[in-house]
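During the reporting period the student researcher (J.K.) took over the structure-prediction task from the postdoctoral fellow and processed the backlog of single-chain submissions. One of the processed entries is reproduced below for the supervisory committee.
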Amino acid sequence: MFQNRYKELRSGWAIALSIAAIFTAVMPLILVLSVMAAASIDWGGLAAAEPAALTEAVTGEINGVLASPWINYGMYILQIGGLLGLFCLLYKRPLSHMGLHPKGWLKHLLFGGLFGIVSIGLAVAALAVTGAAEIGAPDWSALADSRWIHGFFVFVMVGFFEEILSRGFMMTALKTTRKTWLIVSLPAVIFGLLHAVNPNVTAFSLLNIMLVGILFAYLFIKTGRLWAPIGYHITWNFF
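J.K. obtained the following structure tokens:
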């Protein structure tokens, strides 16, 4: 039930454990933050409030605590650490076996990052040429706002986390199936479905995310490393 005929852990169980790991890793932090948020609420002032108002106040306080970019950094670091720890625990192999080779990492990361910038640039150019979008003058004063810097580092974390999960962990786990089409497609589908809670999501946008997941898988397979898809992921999201 848990092992295939080669005495390897079945990939389905490994993937299920990886999904469980990313939620389990952040639960202690979320619990602490929720207690902190609850302690800061004026419960006496809300004693006579309607249930809807009480729920809104509590939700707003918790969301306010969780909105800090530093909290986001912490959550992603815990999730990445949970995935890497689970991989080592299950497979007893170095992290290079999931694509995190230390040699040549910067070259591949920059290549993927440049690929992402060019790709999103071509998409915007196509919209501008067809009249579907208009490009205005840049507001350079926005560079003085620290939010875009925090936004960039959040996207760095997202790129690492989602590629380690979807390509590094899941594709490596699925190698036990010996079926290339499944190794490439299943993580791409899961990758797309994980974005189903994004704002303004549509079936078409989910399909696009699944397709770019296949592109990331191609980069992973061709380079043998995760760095190129991580770089692409970061710059595509940020730009």
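The committee noted the following: The mean pLDDT is 88.
J.K. will present the remaining backlog at the next meeting.
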